[in-house]
Design brief:
Blueprint: E1 2-10, H1 17-31, E2 37-43, E3 49-57, H2 61-79, E4 84-92
Antiparallel strand pairs: 1-3, 1-4, 2-3
Helix pairs in contact: 1-2
């Protein structure tokens, strides 16, 4: 079973979001394919939110969902521990 998780993080007002996004992109490139697949990141139009998502396979939805969420939160916290998680979604991925 493959699960896709998407998380949206609100950036603190004092953070240079472009620099933070560049750092996150570098981390995603290093991490992609090791434990998570199809890692993706984007910025909202108003430059306040960072959206990250990833996919992974696992035995059941719940444990796979939690594993992906934990990895994505760890990645964003390496850029800045001040990000606030504001939206999450998870779904079964179709091949």
């Amino acid at each position: 079973m493959s699960v896709r998780v998407s998380l949206d993080f609100l950036a603190p007002a004092d953070l240079d979001l472009e620099t933070a996004f560049d750092q996150l992109s570098d981390l995603l490139e290093e991490f992609d394919g090791k434990e998570l697949l199809d890692l993706d990141a984007g910025l909202s139009r108003d430059m306040r939110l960072i959206h990250i998502s990833a996919e992974s396979s696992g035995a059941d939805f719940g444990s796979t969902d939690l594993r992906i969420r934990a990895a994505l939160v760890l990645l964003i916290s390496e850029v800045s521990p001040k990000f606030e998680l504001v939206k999450t979604s998870s779904f079964l991925a179709v091949a």
